[in-house]
Structure prediction request, 395 residues.
Amino acid sequence: MKVNFFDVKRQYDLIKDEINNRIIEIVESGAYVNGPAVKDLERDLAKYLNAKHVITVGNGTDALEIALKSIDIKPGDEVITTPFSFFATSEAIAIVGATPVFVDIDESNLTIDVKRIEEKITSKTKAILPVHIFGAAANMDEIMQLAKKYKLHVIEDAAQAIGTKYHGKMAGVLGDIACFSFYPTKNLGCYGDGGMIVTNDDKLASIVKALKVHGAGKDGCLARELLTGIKEEINNNEQVSDLYDPYKYYNYLIGYNSRLDSIQAGILDIKLKHLEEYNNRRREIAKKYNQGLMHINEISIPLYNEENSYHQFVILTSQKEALIKYMNDNGVGCANFYPVPLHLQKAFDYLNYHEGDLKIAEKICKQTVCLPIFPELTEKEINYVIEKVKEFFEV
Ligand SMILES: *Cc1c(COP(=O)(O)O)cnc(C)c1O
Prediction:
């Protein structure tokens, strides 16, 4: 039997007619950028998350970079984050010129260890960037308390956590601003690249809207005032019409070109209607894996939790490499997230971290095996995966 680590085509086959019709509709409409499809999606996502502002962007990495810029993170600033994530989390901090300050993780849910944050706060610290890793929410209550005490911003990296809850509230509305990715294998994925920024803060929303379109127009003018205190008069007698927006060519900030295509927005809006059902199926699969594997002494499984959206199902074992090989030899795709903690990535050698600096993250990276988990997995496939893991450990 063959079980792929993921198979995005299966989901497409189930909603094919609806998706194909929508794509044709959008192509026929001629509105390919910032059209009604994008506005509809932003409205529907805001409702789903119970958030005030949803601003779509080109991808999750752009979302992080623009969010950091919106809170005015600059060279010389420090941003506290986790070493256990996808590279983009810390890359975005470095790209805006700030220094990522890595804090070790909590072994119980693999997110940033709040108890170790305070000792890393300096006069240069401007923000905390926790990641809801694999769909498990970071300990946001404690993080928000610390942020309040030290007047820091909190940016949630929720790229792996759309539909994750935390004490009943959606991930993405727990901090000041949040970033999501619609990369195809994420819990809500499009058929290419996409991302979004979510915030309840009107001021941050205005800045984000301006930054994603070259700091242009009326949004750009307002954003400049919010960021720098410099008030500009829009000195322009040309008329805005459906055909021509003269403000588009007045730029007030150095920004980005980061847009979600209308076609991707149309696809995402259809899939959003199924998201709860997809995430509940992930929870069901996680429960089955948990029940099937919890008795194996050689592995441990981070706590099963109904609020987790199970972007990944991870088991920890000291026999990582051998288990992945055994599963692959038996036709089961397993992933190695993440092989290197971020503080030890070559790209960050200039930060001078060494092996032994963040011991939990380093240990966890040597132990994680991610099993296939996507909503369309069949019972047969789930049972086969469980059987093969048990076989490896001879139980
Ligand atoms: C996927 C991901 C990103 C980046 O998203 P892209 O859309 O691929 O740019 C950032 N952070 C985390 C935790 C991710 O999983």
